[in-house]
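Bug: token stream looks shifted between consecutive jobs. Job 1:
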Amino acid sequence: MPIPSDEEIRALHEKYAPTPEALALVYTHCEIVCEIAERLIDRSGLALDRALVRAGCLLHDIGVYRLFDASGRLDHARYVSHGVLGHEILAEEDLPEPLCRFCSHHTGVGLTRVDIREQGLPVPEQDYVAESVEEELVMYADKFHSKRNPPVFLTADSYAASVARFGEEKVIRFKEMRTRFGTPDLAPLAAAYGHTLVGAGDESAPRADGTT
């Protein structure tokens, strides 16, 4: 399967970003998620396709651009749909389905058709859960950084506490991923990017409903 280079992925971001500010916000987040994922690969020793994970990380949030209006404001009410929108963008660009799935299958710790129905979410009613180890790792790495204003890093305990509002099964799912991939050391990244590291119990912690 052909995997686009970093330069080709950056060009796609530039193509769809409505403003330089949106590009900086989304692409920087994707780069951070990629750094987290690659550090977890190095520590875990898991057998997986590293190039596929890198591309998946750098592409996973490209659908966010379709939620900005002409003035540059983000439609937070429909934010949960950004994964499906990203899948559509990559499909329109004729990228392989495994790459498209990184967009639609990274939200939260997985969205099910039951989640969608019960919460009235603005996405087609089907299951959006990680199936491959690569999809699972991109989903997991994404949980440690939020594009909130200003952007922040989230400790594992912080995310676990915030996802609890969506049910015990979500807490268990996150715990399983944490056991499988390990807990990233976020302090060096937080210092490098100048973003606050939010711990459990911090009132500034973002929601765990896909708004990362």
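Job 2, same session, no restart:
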Amino acid sequence: MAFSLYNNVAGVLRTAAICALAVWLAGCATKYPAAPTAAASPEYNYLIGPGDSVNIVVWRNPELSMVVPVRPDGKIAAPLVEDLTAQGKDASTLARDIEKALGKFIRDPVVTVVVTNFVGPYSEQIRVVGEATKPQTLAYKQKMTLLDVMIAVGGITDFADGNGATLVRTEEKSQRQYSVRVKDLVMRGDVSANVEMKPGDVLIIPRSWF
């Protein structure tokens, strides 16, 4: 009888512990507000970053036209243009800067810049860390969504707490954290869990406790 009583007490304590853990986990999962569905800015312009390539076309001056890489320091070098900062500029702004530099040597240069091999500046890249299949850094694209990000990183691992994922976003020079339901989106096809990304977002996918 004492053994049976011990088993009953142990069972009650075990059930209570499980319930307490479930409440705690539920509280953790909801400690951040859900990420807003819409986030993309309609006036967004792609900014050049290290690792990009830029095709410089100088009208009527084919000898000055070429494709050049953006160096790790964010600068480019081309004929008659040395160490010109490209990082953080859009293609039109860079073209105007090249025109100013070339204007010292040729009359009224007309320059067009086309960006290829998109990487983007570090401040605008999307970073995925934790229990993604292939954690990595991605170049931001206009209207990019959480689903696009998860496809790029190959989904989540078997150990991921997908619905406990956190989206860290910089807004008005401060950081905010949002909850996102990665598991519902990827494993259950729940499109209501899909949200738009913003430049510089960091997606953190934790490991599941069990």
